[in-house]
Amino acid sequence: MRRVRYIFDIKDTEIIEYFGTYEKEISRSQLDKWLLKDDHPDQVSLYDIDLAIFLNGFISAKRGQKEGELPKPEKTLNNNIILRKLKIALNLKDVDVIEIMDLADMRISKPELNAFFRREDHKHYRRCLDQFLRSFLQGCQMKYKPSSTNKYH
Predict the structure, then answer these.
(1) Do the beta carbons of residue 153 and residue 2 sit within 8 Å?
(2) What is the distance between the alpha carbons of residues 146 and 43, in angstroms, rounded to a whole number?
(3) pLDDT mean over 128-138
(4) Which residues contact residue 7 at a Cβ distance below 8 angstroms, ignoring those fewer than 6 apart?
């Protein structure tokens, strides 16, 4: 959440609104604790369902609110789901994701990328590892926030 917030300049009030859409009230102090660096003693980890709400809100903010019922936030997330949600929010095609990965000096083919978006029981499913997701975020930072120092935030 911290990295996505930084890359796309998402304001605290917007994050609070994302949660409000799902009728989950969060305080400014709760948000501040989530956003602290991992090694800070007051830092509080985000539950998967809270990260799912944040990402669903990010999708709605970027693509517009869908008509009808809100998508249910997942109770458990993995890197594949996070990558898919970011791809949807940014309206990226496969070639766009490959381009972003190139910016982060990570080469991936279209079939390798598609394996991340398959069902877990599919024979060509591939687990998205932490390093891939970190590289994707680094590439996003280089593309969407080129003026930054490209440090991890």
Answers:
(1) yes
(2) 28
(3) 97
(4) 137, 140, 141, 144, 145
- Global pTM reads 0.91
Residue 148 has a pLDDT of 66
What's the rounded Cα separation, in Å, for the pair 125 and 123?
6
Q: Which one-letter amino acid corresponds to residue 65?
A: Q
Cα dihedral 150, 153, 78, 73 sign: negative
Q: What is the amino acid identity at position 10?
A: I
- How many Å separate Cα 88 from the centre of its chain? 10
Q: Tens digit of pLDDT for each residue in 33-73?
A: 999 999 999 999 999 999 999 999 999 999 988 888 888 99
